Amino acid sequence: MAKVDIIRYNPIGIFSSTTQTVVTYDDKTVVHHIEPSGNVGTQYAGELGSEWFGTIENLNAGLVKGGANWGDVYKTDVLWTTPAGGYDACDDYKNSYNAIYGPMIAAVTGHHLRSNRMARFTHPEGFPDPAALFEIQIKAVRGESVSINGGTIDYGEWQDVQPSGASVMHKDANGNTVTTLGDDLKQEMEFVLIEQYEKPMAEKGIDFKASTMWMEILVAIDNNPAETWARIDTLKAVMADYYGDNLPAGKIYPVSRIPNLDGIVEPQPRCIVGNDITINRSSEVIDGFASWASFDRSGVREVMVSGVGGDDAGAILGTIDSRLKEAGGTGLKENGIFNNAYIVAKDSKEASRQWLADFNTSFTAYYEGTSPAGRTAQYLGGFMDEKYPCGISNRSMFAL
Question: CB–CB of 1/299 below 8 Å?
Answer without folding.
Answer: yes
